[in-house]
Write a structure and sequence with these properties.
This protein has 163 residues and is an alpha+beta fold. The protein contains 5 helices and 8 strands. Helix 4 links the parallel strand 6 (97-101) and strand 7. The chain is globular, with a radius of gyration of 16 Å. Has an important function as a repair enzyme for proteins that have been inactivated by oxidation. Catalyzes the reversible oxidation-reduction of methionine sulfoxide in proteins to methionine.
């Protein structure tokens, strides 16, 4: 089996990761930071806006089960690519809309997908999503990985205890 990587930033990485974990053909996900200038950042470094990193989800997927174009469709669907350095209430460059490509085919697919979406006029404003080469990836700590799943498990245990 061939395994490929894809890396996307679309706001808070917790929700982005949760969305991609639902996609058939996605083998694994992790959250972390990419695209900055500060070596080995931690969550508080990135949150303080001194590192230049984006919160990202790195995906390992089976291209025989899900295409990169399919992953791009999920990416465009789960956030607003017209807001600069912001998603919902989250503000700052760490929440920017960005596609980090890992090879020439991904770069071309991302550029074509962005152009097609812009021409569709689905959005009233221009798409501001960056498309740039993948940089060094810094894995976030364990507490941030699969955050929503962990939170749901803890919540259901608390609910069971309360009954």
């Amino acid at each position: 089996m061939t395994i490929e990587k894809a890396t996307f930033g679309a706001g808070c990485f917790w929700a982005v990761e949760a969305a991609f974990r639902q996609v058939k053909g996605v083998l694994s996900t992790s959250v972390g930071y990419m695209g900055g200038h500060f070596p080995d950042p931690c969550y508080l470094d990135v949150l303080s806006r001194i590192t230049g990193h984006a919160e990202v989800v790195q995906i390992e997927y089976d291209p025989q089960s899900v295409s990169y174009d399919d992953l791009l469709a999920v990416f465009w669907d789960i956030h607003d690519p017209t807001t600069l350095n912001r998603q919902g209430p989250d503000r700052g460059e760490q929440y920017r809309s960005v596609i980090f490509f890992h090879n020439t085919q991904q770069r071309q697919a991302a550029q074509q997908s962005k152009a097609k979406l812009q021409m569709s006029r689905k959005f009233d404003r221009d798409i501001v999503t960056e498309i740039t080469s993948a940089k060094e990836y810094y894995l976030a700590t364990a507490e941030h990985q699969q955050y929503f799943e962990k939170k749901a498990k803890h919540q259901s245990k608390a609910d069971n205890f309360a009954q």
